[in-house]
Amino acid sequence: MTYTIHEVAEKLGISTYSIRYYNDHGMLPFVQRDANNNRIFHDTDLEWLSMIVCLRETGMSVKAIKHYQDLIQEGDDTINERYAMMCAQQEQTLAEIADLKKHLDTINYKVAHYASILENNEPDSFVPSNLRTEAVGK
Amino acid sequence: MTYTIHEVAEKLGISTYSIRYYNDHGMLPFVQRDANNNRIFHDTDLEWLSMIVCLRETGMSVKAIKHYQDLIQEGDDTINERYAMMCAQQEQTLAEIADLKKHLDTINYKVAHYASILENNEPDSFVPSNLRTEAVGK
DNA sequence: GCAGACCTTCGTCTAACACGAAGGTAAGTA
DNA sequence: TACTTACCTTCGTGTTAGACGAAGGTCTGC
């Protein structure tokens, strides 16, 4: 089973630009070409790509992902470093989720604030209207 | 109580570059200057900045934040649009948290995988060692 | 035998900063 | 007074991770 770059893009929810970018930067070294030089992707490539997407979306840089992939290719001696990388990524992702939840609270507050104004038909000028009261809404 | 740009940067965990960038792009229109033309920040500026940080970290573009701020300055007629913006942001943030949690599962799997290899002193070559088995680790 | 739909590579453009350089000002100190 | 240190400013370029258009090749269907 093989896929075109467009099929892969759709399957993984990323752009063809990104896929070429990853390929050009050595992050997909096994992608084959057909007689017309078109990239052809196998399921294993898809798996790798989805790992790349996972790492990118959790904030790992392209450079670091490339390094991680190089480590894998170097073999068993690099398992310690790979382990460290994934631990760091785990921690960072947990921290980001926590951050987002905090920010979500602020946004929830804003939504409720506006909803109550709209419901009660209370104009904002009910409260002295200036930017200050708007800013964080504590 | 006023603050220097460095104090604000430290307080909010962002760079002075970012603060100047936001200021230069009209997102902090009330920041005053001292006799030497240095920016001086008040608590209300801090509140605004922390709202900017919240929106940026939940993925709103600088341009959209500027627009939101313009809406606030335009007054009560824009509450509907502001409400819509915050609702969209709320939804997007919820989606991103969900995404991150999914990715975290994948990373957790990797961490456990490496941990078990290191604990049992099992070399990776125990399993036919190639990139494929590494990729997602399902 | 040509249009349309793909594909490629190449090159420029963008957002949101990051950072260095050049130069001004203020405070501490020898 | 002169000098150093430590800020600040503006200006301009560099970076990351793509997004996108243009030019041109190739396959397919009519």
- Give the uncertain stretches of chain A in residue-range form: 124-133
What is the CATH fold-level name of the largest domain in chain A? Answer: Multidrug-efflux Transporter Regulator, Chain: A, Domain 2
Write down the secondary-structure element order of chain A: EHHEEHHHH
Helix tally of chain A equals 6
The CATH class of the largest domain in chain A: Mainly Alpha
Reported for the largest beta sheet of chain A, the result is: 3 strands, antiparallel
Helix % of chain A is 55-70%
InterPro entries (chains A, B): DNA-bd_dom_put_sf, MerR-type_HTH_dom, MerR_fam
Pfam family, one (chains A, B): MerR_1
GO molecular function, one term (chains A, B): DNA-binding transcription factor activity
Domain HTH merR-type (chains A, B): 2-71
